[in-house]
Amino acid sequence: MDTNNNIEKEILALVKQKVSLIEYENYFSQLKYNPNASKSDIAFFYAPNKVLCTTITAKYGALLKEILSQNKVGMHLAHSVDVRIEVAPKIQVNAQSNINYKAVKTSVKDSYTFENFVVGSCNNTVYEIAKKVAQSDTPPYNPVLFYGGTGLGKTHILNAIGNHALEKHKKVVLVTSEDFLTDFLKHLDNKNMDSFKKKYRHCDFFLLDDAQFLQGKPKLEEEFFHTFNELHANSKQIVLISDRSPKNIAGLEDRLKSRFEWGITAKVMPPDLETKLSIVKQKCQLNKITLPEEVMEYIAQHISDNIRQMEGAIIKISVNANLMNATIDLNLAKTVLEDLQKDHAEGSSLENILLAVAQSLNLKSSEIKVSSRQKNVALARKLVVYFARLYTPNPTLLLAQFLDLKDHSSISKMYSGVKKMLEEEKSPFILSLREEIKNRLNELNELNDKKTAFNSSE
C-alpha cells in the first residue's frame, strides 16, 4: 500500500471508532481522501455525489475536524485541521445512484456473516440464538433483543441474521432507530404513511439497531408500537439491538419495555483475552497487515474491548511503520499506541461510576444506593466502592454517605474483597465485569467531555 492509501485507511479507521457500523457504511465507505489538494491545515475528500457531500459535511464535519486535529494523521500536523468534501470528478450522479443511496438505509451489509464472526465464551450464547433465529422458518423467540457495550459485535450479528435470511429469499429490513425516525418524519410530512407502513410492516425479518434511541419520542414510540404489534401478530421475526437491557432504557414507554421482553434477551459480554487475540488476528488478515505475534498479543492485552478500536490500533501501527520506514516490533507498537491506552476512567464522578455499574449488572442506580441482601445488589455496591477508590479522590466518609452506609469502616472491607477476587483471577465473570464497567465509564466520561466542550463553545 502506498502512503496516501495508508493515510486514508488510518483516517477511516479512526472514524469507525466514533460512529456506528451502519453510519460508516452509509456515509464514509465511499469517502476518498484527496492527497494532492490536502495541506497541513486542511484535508480534502471526494464523495460520489452532492447529497453525500452535503450530508457528511453537515452531520460529521465537526467529527472529521476533531479526528484530524487530535491525531496528527499523515501530513496534517497543524493544531487545527479544516475539512473540505467535494464531488468526485468524472462521476455521473444519475437517478439510479440516488435510488441506491436511499435504499441503503434499510439494506444489510453483506460482509458481516456468521462465518466471519469470531465466537468465544463471551458471545457463544448470543451467536447460537442468532443462528437459530436466522435458520428457522417461524420465529423460535419473538422478539430477540441483544444488548451490551459499544463495539462488541452486536451490529455484526444483526447483519449476519439478515444475510442468512436473504439467502433463504426472505424479505429483510435492517434499520437504525435514527433512520427509522428520519423515514417516519419524511412520510409524515408528505402525508404518505401508508407507504411507510408497507415498507416496515410487510417484511419477514425486521432488524432494528440502536433500539435505545426510540425513547423520549412519543410519536415515534406510538408508530413503533403498532409496527411491532402487526409484525408480531403475523409471526414475523423481530430482532432488536440495544446498548442496555429494556428495563434500563430510561424514558422508554412501559408498554414497549414489556414487549421487548416478550421473547428472549441476551447480553453480549466483552471478549476474553483469547477471543480478543482471535479478533486481532482476523482483522490483520482482512486488512492484509502482517504483525508479529507479540504485537498482536500486546494489542489484545492493552487495547479496550471495543473491536473497532482494536482494528484502528492495527491500522495505526501499519501506517506509522510505513511512514517512518520502520520494522514493526513491540517497541514501535507501544510508542504508536500510547495515546490509545489512556485511561479515561480517571477522574470519574460517583454518579458515572454508579451508572456504569448499574448498566453492567442490569440494575437501577436507585437499587444500588440502598443496602440489600440480594447478591447482585451487594456485588454492585462493592464494585461502586472499588471503582470509586480507584478513580476518584472522594474521602471514605463521603463514599459511605453516598451509599448510605452508617459505618464508613466497611468501605475498606468492600474494596479489599473485590480487589482480592480480581487478583486471584478465580472468577472470569468478575474479570469480564470489571472490563465492561471500565468501558462504560470511558464512554460516559467521553460523552461528558464532549458536552462540556460543546457548552463552552457556545
Automatic annotation (TrEMBL):
Chromosomal replication initiator DnaA C-terminal domain sequence ranges: 349-418
InterPro entries associated with the record: AAA+_ATPase, Chromosome_initiator_DnaA, Chromosome_initiator_DnaA-like, Chromosome_initiator_DnaA_CS, DnaA_C, DnaA_dom, DnaA_N_sf, P-loop_NTPase
Localization per Swiss-Prot or TrEMBL: Cytoplasm
Ranges where the record places region Domain IV, binds dsDNA: 322-458
GO BP: any one term: regulation of DNA replication
One Pfam family of this chain: Bac_DnaA
Molecular-function GO terms, alphabetical: ATP binding; DNA replication origin binding; lipid binding
Binding, ATP: G151, G153, K154, T155
Domain comment (free text): Domain I is involved in oligomerization and binding regulators, domain II is flexibile and of varying length in different bacteria, domain III forms the AAA+ region, while domain IV binds dsDNA.
Protein name as catalogued: Chromosomal replication initiator protein DnaA
